[in-house]
Amino acid sequence: MQYKLDKPIHGAIGTDKYQVTIEWRNGTFVADEPVSSGGKDTGPDPYTLLLSSLATCTLVTLRMYIDRKGWDVPGITVNANMFQAKKDDVITHVFDRDIQFSGELTPEQKDRLLEIAAACPVSKILEGNVKVRNFLFRDEDTEKKLNYTNGDVTVVWKPEFCKHSGRCVTQLPLVFNLQQRPWVNMSGADSERILEQVKRCPTGALTAFHNNDEEAKA
Ligand code: SF4
């Protein structure tokens, strides 16, 4: 399992209706809801963000293809919008993408570019098999806990909380490996890398502490 983003986007909301701060790898931006939905319209709403993703992916994909072909197209525009269609109680979300090119293109070239747009990665995601997984972080204590240590740090695993996201075993298999016993091999990486991986557990099933800190508390 290889995530698309090295660092996940991070969204947060407080009590200010409905301003959301999104942190991405190179900065932050604000999203919101329109006034008609109780927000202040200080940033794009979720549907606008979704359509922006489609428009951006379309434009970048087309630009890459056109540049590779060496065609003279100084500008491309996309208008994107969506609606819901209901037939026999089945709701279909329909995305419309209106594309225009400036420059001289033959009808055949335009047809080819339409095919390229239709196959952009975000189009494929929207039209493909999609699954949304949800993980809740839990910081409660549990009775069943298993400890693994390398003498420097200790990893604590709470099996009841593990929802098998696969993050630990795919991202640090030399330490977290279900085929070996114990399944946590504390010699597989240095302490800092192990601690970093533990922080990526989305459910709280994995936690860790420096042994020195615990000894100091005792
Ligand atoms: S990252 Fe956490 S929830 Fe996911 S498999 Fe590992 S222990 Fe379980």
UniProtKB/TrEMBL annotation:
Transmembrane segments: none annotated. Pfam families: Fer4_19, OsmC. Signal peptide: none annotated. Residues 148-208 form the Divergent 4Fe-4S mono-cluster domain. It comes from the Bacteria. This is Putative redox protein. It comes from Pseudobacter ginsenosidimutans. The lineage of its organism: Bacteria, Pseudomonadati, Bacteroidota, Chitinophagia, Chitinophagales.
